[in-house]
Design goal:
single chain, alpha/beta, binds NADP nicotinamide-adenine-dinucleotide phosphate, binds fe (iii) ion
Length: about 375
């Protein structure tokens, strides 16, 4: 067993100012920012710190959500032209994932996405070579955990694929609770529910350790206690969920994830990552609990619930309280049915299935998608 964390964390109100400490004079820094971080003035604050540190910087504003390979490829020439030594990514998981993917293809120009992306657990994986450009991740959502994780999730066509390597773990993460304070309700809900999925999947994973468990338990507990308040805008709750997101990130960096993520990555065309995960979670739990209840039961007890049934109902209740829609409400039936076979096959091949407590068949995955669609 092994427990790993590469990223140095700075946290607390105003911790954004650590940018000035981290960067060096004359260092060439490229900042990737989402539009909201520019609009809300946080990008401006970052560039002020860069100026104070005497760094040479450039900004790329408007990194899209749920990023595609095209978005990464479009950014690359600008990056190559500037020749940065350090990246800063300020925004949600999407912006951080773009910075990570750009880092791979900027540091190793001969590499193609298809060479290193993980398409199937049955295919030989090519490791990502050593990378040199430093990365500071500054999350503005409270969910993805990309600020500490080894993954970058990129959409190619209808499907998301991951690049995974410890080389992708950011060097620094800055968790300043002023940033997620401004999240719209839906972003707070969707990203916050991703935290719960990360915590539960990392805990029940075949790769879980007592150390990843500790982070998973604390993150899940925090979600059950504070997510509703956080979504309704409570400041203290938003801060707690912000840290819980990174804790769940540390949990899955080590414990990995499972069938919910395998299935949501293949259903990425349907909606935002956290939302699709939240919809699928109870159905995957029902499937796993029937066949391997042990770890769910132990998580239930850690969280102060009576038994595994109570955990399962709390998950459903939280979705209901937060008005998570049914799958059939956000997807066109015809399109869903047309894509079902392909999604199930690709989800079955997803490497995260290796960590799920149960090895499903393609037909069983299809049935889980169908149950989620019918809302049974
Ligand atoms: P996101 O897609 O990064 O952000 C969603 C939207 O929220 C953005 O469009 C952004 O709008 C807005 N936003 C973000 N922060 C805001 C703030 N503080 N105030 C106002 N608006 C804000 O959401 P996310 O849930 O963090 O990331 C989802 C992505 O992460 C998915 O692509 C998923 O696959 C990936 N993911 C990665 C990992 C990993 O380990 N790498 C793990 C789980 C999920 P603007 O664009 O207008 O700014
Ligand atoms: Fe996730």
């Amino acid at each position: 067993m092994r427990f790993f964390l590469k990223t140095t964390l700075f946290l607390g109100e105003g911790s954004l100012k650590n940018v000035e400490k981290i960067v060096n004079e004359n260092e060439r820094v490229l900042v990737f920012s989402s539009r909201s971080m520019d609009r809300l003035g946080f990008l401006g604050e970052v560039t002020k710190y860069l100026e104070e540190a005497g760094a040479v910087y450039e900004t790329i504003i408007g990194v899209p959500a749920e990023p595609t390979l095209e978005a990464v490829e479009e950014i690359l020439p600008k990056v190559k032209e500037f020749e940065p030594e350090m990246f800063i990514a300020i925004g949600g998981g999407s912006v951080i994932d773009v910075a990570k993917a750009v880092k791979v293809f900027y540091d190793v120009p001969d590499l193609n996405f298809d060479d290193v992306a993980i398409f199937s657990r049955f295919q030989k994986m090519n490791p990502i070579p050593k990378l040199k450009t430093k990365l500071i991740a500054i999350p503005s959502t409270s969910g993805a955990g990309s600020e500490v994780s080894a993954a970058s999730v990129i959409k190619k066509g209808d499907t998301k694929y991951t690049l995974v390597s410890p080389e992708l773990c950011p060097d620094y993460a800055i968790l300043d609770p002023r940033l997620p304070e401004k999240m719209p309700k839906e972003v707070a809900r969707n990203s916050g529910l991703d935290v719960l999925v990360h915590a539960i999947e990392a805990y029940v994973s075949k790769a879980a350790t007592p150390f990843s468990d500790a982070y998973a338990i604390k993150a899940a507990k925090t979600v059950f206690e504070y997510l509703e308040k956080s979504v309704s805008g409570d400041r203290e709750a938003r801060e707690k969920i912000h840290y819980a997101a990174t804790m769940a990130g540390i949990a899955f960096l080590n414990g990995r994830l499972g069938l919910v993520h395998a299935m949501s990555h293949k259903a990425a065309w349907i909606g935002p990552h956290g939302l699709v995960n939240a919809i699928l979670l109870p159905y995957v739990m029902e499937y796993n609990i029937k066949r391997a209840p042990g770890r769910y039961d132990s998580l239930a007890k850690e969280l102060g619930f009576k038994d595994v049934e109570e955990l399962y109902f709390k998950v459903i209740e939280l979705n209901e309280k937060l008005a998570v829609p049914k799958l059939s409400e956000i997807v066109d039936e015809k399109e869903f049915m047309e894509k079902l076979d392909e999604m199930a096959k690709k989800a079955y091949e997803d490497p995260l299935v290796n960590f799920n407590p149960v090895e499903p068949t393609v037909d069983e995955i299809k049935e889980i998608y169908m149950k989620a669609f019918r809302g049974e």
